[in-house]
Amino acid sequence: MNINRIYFVTGNPYKLAEVVAILSEGPRLPFELQAVQLELPELQAQPEEISRQKCRLAAEQLQGPVLVEDTSLCCTALNGLPGPYIKWFMEKLEFEGFLRMLEGFEDKSATFQCVFAFAPGPGSEPVTFVGRLPGRIVAPRGPSGSKWGDLSRLFELEGYGRTYAEMDEATLRAVSHRSRALALVREYLLTL
Length: 192
Ligand SMILES: O=c1[nH]c(=O)c2ncn([C@@H]3O[C@H](COP(=O)(O)OP(=O)(O)OP(=O)(O)O)[C@@H](O)[C@H]3O)c2[nH]1
Ligand SMILES: [Mg+2]
What we know:
It is found in: Cytoplasm. One of its GO terms (cellular component) is cytoplasm. One of its GO terms (molecular function) is nucleotide binding. InterPro entries: Ig-like_dom, ITPase, ITPase-like_fam, RdgB/HAM1. The chain is α/β, with parallel strands linked by helices. It has a single domain (5-189), classed as Maf protein (Alpha-Beta Complex). The protein is 36% helix and 26% strand. It is built from 6 helices and 7 strands, in the order E-H-E-H-E-E-H-E-E-H-E-H-H. The chain has helices at residues 13-24, 47-62, 86-102, 151-154, 169-175, 177-189, and strands at residues 5-10, 32-37, 66-75, 82-83, 109-119, 127-137, 155-157. Strand 5 and strand 6 (127-137) form a beta hairpin. Helix 1 (13-24) crosses helix 6 and helix 5 (169-175) crosses helix 6 (177-189). The chain binds ligand CZF and magnesium ion. Residues 10-12, 15, 39, 69-71, 86-87, 90, 148-149, 151-152, 164, 178 line the site of ligand CZF. The ligand O=c1[nH]c(=O)c2ncn([C@@H]3O[C@H](COP(=O)(O)OP(=O)(O)OP(=O)(O)O)[C@@H](O)[C@H]3O)c2[nH]1 is lined by residues 10-12, 15, 39, 69-71, 86-87, 90, 148-149, 151-152, 164, 178.
């Protein structure tokens, strides 16, 4: 396939910076990654389908190869909710309300899930890549005002005893849901 530039489409500058940083490590990809700041509609569906829909819209709008990503936070006690709607839950409930929602449940386990979707152009069925990070929801710990907001202070990574906000960048980059998914994206892009 003759691709020399892929658009990474997101409205979130932190997500963009992280994707660029992770992809710039390791073997060099034979494509230029070009950031496009665009807020795409996220239609109601299962996480992988939300990403595929974002990807189809982006490929249509930009008429070229596109990569998008959507992050979910899935609570076991809530059968996977809020999932892809976590952004709106945090905006409307703030962290106190979110914690209250889980108060009645003993099981506080949760998973960060990241779904990338890639399409070589409009009209192509997007391919998806999933990365997961297990943990649990805890009372907030770590600096407030960090780039991912309060959610990062509520999620404690399994096996680390530290919240997302308390982790150092290098360790996170090695283990995060986004890094795990991007390892699969890289593997796929290298086959094109
Ligand atoms: O603690 C965190 N560590 C992370 O690594 C992380 N990645 C995303 N998020 C948050 O989860 C929601 C997903 O929303 P999301 O995937 O739709 O992102 P977005 O709307 O900001 O950008 P985009 O959809 O334009 O790409 C948003 O509230 C993000 O702030 C994270 N929180
Ligand atoms: Mg979004």
